[in-house]
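Hey, sorry to bother you again with one of my protein questions. There's a protein on my desk that I can't quite get my head around. No rush at all, and the record is pasted right below.
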Amino acid sequence: MYQEKIEELQNYFKSHCKMKEYSGHSSKVHSVGWSCDGKRLASGSFDKSVCIYTLDRDRLNKEITFKGHGGSVDQLCWHQSHSDLLSTASGDKSVRIWDTRIQKCVATINTKGENINITWSPNGNSIAVGNKEDLVTFIDARTHKIEAEEQFNFEVNEISWNNTSDLFFLTNGQGCVHILSYPELKRQHILKAHPGTCICIEFDPTGKYFATGSADALVSLWDINELACQRVFTRMDWPVRTISFSYDGQLLASASEDLIIDIGFVETGDKIADISVEAATFTVAWHPSMYFLAYACDDKDAYDRKRDAGSLKVWGFPSD
């Protein structure tokens, strides 16, 4: 049933496997993400800045560098329907909202600790940010006021709303996914997802699945309605740090300290392609309407910091 589609995708990437590299930062890129209209790519870095690139058919052009954070920009998240708005979480104990139209920061929200992850609800109303002490702060995205704070007694790794913004998901250090109602924040379910730490979580744009990546090197695919594990992707050898679904929900990219990024077919788990990398990869993001994958790797060489430091890459361009 899926064999033709699998072969078609495998063949597509045989002729669309060119990678382009862009350097906009002076040190490691922690997070990359596309605006909802796919016209811009943002990167957040250890150098405290955010770079915005515009996509012009087959290349990126650097548009602006946002400065203002006093610490590393650890994660960023665009508004899911307003293509100009971007939120960032930083170790400087703040969240910032940036507007690419006026090219500046439109809000700074001070929080209690060093922030490491951020997510914007798909309906645009709320931003959640998690810090190193496992406190999650919920911010009203329109008034920029803190609506709620929730302290968890376990290691919170990644946070995300479902596509309808009425459930809030957290992955934790015990290999579980906690599911809370939103905005009430009442516990609905706890899924025992992995034997090892559950690191990352992503929702498929079609609303059918979510996936989790874990320290046991596995990616699990879950049916969102049944909360049942459908299949497991097992091609990685190292903890899975980052995952991303393609715009059509057909492909799942996974990355880790393995020197490949794996691209699998969601419905069967078959391998569609892989991308060779020279260092651990901590962030991947599929474009919202095309088969372009943005990613950023760790600095290749601890002794020679200049090489590959602060660059991001986009893969999927037509091969020459």
The chain has a mean pLDDT of 95. The two ends are 32 Å apart (CA to CA). DSSP finds one helix and 28 strands in the chain.
